[in-house]
Amino acid sequence: MASVSARVDRKLQLKEVLDWLVQDGLVEPDPVAKLAQEARVGSKAASRHPLVVIAQARLRSRKPPHPVLTADVLTEWLAARVKLPFYHIDPLKIDLRAVTQVMSADYAVRRSILPVEVSGSNVTIATSEPLMTAWEGELAQMLRLNIRRVLANPIDIERYQGEFFNL
Description:
Layout: H1 14-23, H2 29-41, H3 44-47, H4 50-56, H5 71-82, H6 96-100, H7 105-111, E1 113-119, E2 122-127, H8 134-143, E3 146-151, H9 154-165
Parallel strand pairs: 2-3
Antiparallel strand pairs: 1-2
Helix pairs in contact: 1-2, 1-4
């Protein structure tokens, strides 16, 4: 496993996520190589989150019961790999007034994060970029709150950034 403890603040790369999937025995190397090649040729893949690119390829897991590797399945796998809690965003269980006061929509979008819970002196922030952490100290100092970072589906984060902050 690649070391995620020696972090450099950067976005996940498609190649590294594909390599991790092969290392963990979730997918065969051949379809992964084909997907990596197609992504190199297609310019749109470079701007999309690696989990979204992989989910759209509809690869099946090698592990029984061989589910399709959806964005949720991939996010849950990645969360375990990088040792972050997986968080499924349920907008009906979120106090929108509290979470949208934690940061601006621009701040959330620039950092690919979304506040999802505020409780006392704690705030839970969902991210789809586990290797980007500089915002965490910055935000904790600004808010004077304890930050709990969780990993969530990048599709959900993008969707709910728009919905939460535009209400």
